[in-house]
Structures are given as structure tokens and as C-alpha cells.
Amino acid sequence: MLKGNALVGQSGGPTSVINSSLQGVIKAALKSSMIETLYGMRYGIDGFMAGNLVDLTSQSSSVIEGLTSTPSSALGSSRYKLKDEDLPKVRESLEKHNIRFFFLIGGNDTMDTIHRVEAYCRKTGYELRGIGIPKTVDNDLFGTHYTPGFPSAARYNALSVQQSGRLARDMQKVDSFVIYQTIGRDAGWLAASTALARKEEGDAPHLIYCPERPFRKDEFIEDAKECIEKYGYVSIVVSEGLKYPDGTPVSASERKDKFGNIEYGAMGGSSVGMNVHRILADATGLRGEFQITESLPMCAIDRAEKSDIERAVGCGMEAVKLAEADETGYMVTITRNSEGTFDFGKVPLSDVAVKAKEMSPEMINERGNNVTETFLEYIRPLVSPLPDYVSLEL
Description:
By secondary structure, the chain is α/β, with parallel strands linked by helices.
């Protein structure tokens, strides 16, 4: 039986439930007969290489219990791009602290990090159990029905569009359109989720644009004008990664991050919401506004889904369970069975690392400006019902 210390870290942007997964790892580690001390890496893998560790097994029970109601990343995060020349140093640090169980909570790039560390240790003869724990609001990880953090961020965006839609409806004599921008570099799951805001015909959002389909400027203007004619205003949701048919980002962003991904939003010094606003304002001469939440949906613990929190904790506990069972090189997954309930599974890290799971074609309508019933059937079990609002009889 392998025994030793364990290490856990959080990478990339947070979700409102990433600390819930951390809690799951801590709770399971405290009960494990194979794990002696659980260390937390401060500020990701680069913090670990610098020796920045914290003993998580000595944390008070009140702190551990409070993690599920605490926003952001409690350990501190990082977007460091692990280099091949870093791997010997990582192994040296693992050996120095007798770390035999390695857990990382994160998205596509994080899964690449733990995959490379686990593979390097196996290749060089250092016995290590490496398990990835899924996290991302983008919902773009392969092998899992959904990713912890997505349902809560979906609810945040749906509520925001529902409420801003009321604002836009009642202010239509001042502003004839409103643009709401969501996170989503390659996948439109979050933009699509705002369709949950609709309760009745005419409710916002009227148009939804996801990066899986090219953004056609002339069709967009035509559709927006039609909505304004029909409803008196138009509510439009755009995903940050929208591209024109030739592949050019609608945001006009050119800056790339350390992983080679185009930087969208504020970090890219540009905005798809702002540019789409300009397109429509120029085409119609009408006044409108745009709303960009950026990273707020990543840490809004007040809008977190209860089931999202519970399954995020479960993912952390499942990771320890897999490691105890001598499993390594996997990411924990969430599966949905034929009865509609959810279970935990596993998928090789090599199938997840540095890949993005897009929405399937049947989830987006042919025009590319809305979602279909297929997507709504997928999202409804993940997000609790939104509030009902009254309307005056006018």
C-alpha cells in the first residue's frame, strides 16, 4: 500500500464552487489511512516550485466547513505555463516533501499540467498518483456531462439577463437595444444558458450568439431590426469568442496568453460586446447599452447552485478515492445515467488536456442566433428555476 503526503492546488480562473472541491479533497484526505499530510500549493504549480505550501490537515473544522460558502480560490491561483525544463524541479519538490498523491483542480490547461507531471514521474520512476478534478465555468471539458462551476455561472448569467431584460423592456423609449457579453472562448455554453431567462413570448434574450457558429454581420443586423420592430427593443447575448466567417475575432483582439489562446475581454484590450454594440448603433442610429460581467460569474457564491456545490465536493472526494484505489492519470467526471441522476466516473487526462468541448450542432438553431430545445433539455436539470416576475396589466 502506497503511503505518503498529498498535494492539492487550484489553477486558472475560479468558479463559485472550486473551494467546494478543495473541501472534498481535504475531508477525504483526513479520513485516509494512506495520506499522512495534505499540502496545498499557494498560487499554483509555480508557487509549489518556489516552496510555497500550506498544511491543510491542520486547518480548523470551521475553516474547512466554510469553504463551500467562500468565493474565489482559497489557495490562490496561477496561469503559469509549465515548461519541459520545469519537470525535474517539480519532481524534486515532490520527492523532497514525500508527496505521493497529487491533485489539481482546474480546466483544460490545468489538466495538461497534471497530465505532464504524472507522466514524467511515471517515466522517471517516481511513484505518484495524479488525479485531475474538473473546474470551469465554460463547461468545455471533455469526458464529463458537465463541469462543476458551470451550473452556478449559468444561473448567474441567466438571472442577469432576466433582470436586465426587464430593465431594457421598460427603458425601450431610451435605449432600443442591450448587449450582454458572457465568458466563452471556444464554447458557447454560458451564452446559451441565458435562454433560461425566458418565461413568455417576447422575454429577453431575443438573440443568442455562440462561437460555434460564425457571426454574420448582415444577418445579425437584419435579425436585430426585426426584434426591435416586434418587441420595441432587442436583448442580445454574445459569447466573447465570436468570430466572423473568415475566423477574425469580432472583438478584434490579437493579444495571446501564455498558453497561446487569444485574450478576450479586458485582458485583450477589446470587447465583443462593445463592437457588436457599435455595429448595431451604426446600422440603426439607435441608442443602446452593453453589459460585460467579465469574471464576476466565476466567484458569485451568492448565486451558486446547491447541487453544484454538492457535486463539486463529491468530485474532490472521488479524486482521493481513485488515488487510494491505485488509479492515476485520470480526471474525475460527472455522468448522467438513464434515470436522470448523476454519478462520478473517470477519463484519461490525455483525453482532456488542452482541448475544448464545444456545443453539439443540434443545440444551436440553423440561423445561428438562438438555442434549440435540445440544449434546453440539457440545461434544465442543472439550473434551478428562475424567479417569476409580475407585469402590470397595461
